[in-house]
C-alpha cells in the first residue's frame, strides 16, 4: 500500500460546495430560507416581512432580557424604515434549577437548568386575534467548580444564554411556519 495521495484532483464535499457556492446548490433543490425574501413565482407570503412586523412584549428577569434580545436578532428587528408592527409576541420564561450531582460535603457539583417558555402571537387589532401559540422548552447543565465562585457564575450564565438562544430559535421557526400558511397583510 502506498501512502501517496491519489493521482488527480480529489473533490471533497466541502470543497465542492465552496466551489459551486452553497446557495446555488441549495437553490437547485427548491430551498429558500423561511425568513428571507420571497422567491419569485411562488404564491407564498413574505414570511420575512411578517416576522419583522412582530413587536416583542415586555419580559422580566435576566433570562427574559436575554430572550428578548435573541428574539429581536432573529426576527430581523424593525428599524425606523421597516414595516409597522402588526403583531404582538408575549412570552413568559419559567426556569427551573435542579442539582444533579453532589460532593461528599453535600454541596451540588452539577446543576441542570430547564427552561419552559409559553408564548402567544396575536394581532395588534382591537380585539386582538390569536394567530399562534406554543411552548418552547430547552435543557442544559453546568458544573459547579469547587472553590471557584466566578467560574460557576460564568458557567451558569453561559448555560442560560445557550438555552435562551435555543428557545428563541425554536419560537422563530414556529412563527415562520405559522406565517407560511396565512397571507401577508
From TrEMBL:
Stored InterPro entries: LPS_assembly_LptE
Keywords: Lipoprotein
Pfam families the record matches: LptE
Protein name per Swiss-Prot or TrEMBL: LPS assembly lipoprotein LptE
Lineage: Bacteria, Pseudomonadati, Pseudomonadota, Alphaproteobacteria, Acetobacterales
Stored Gene3D superfamilies: Lipoprotein like domain
Gene: lptE
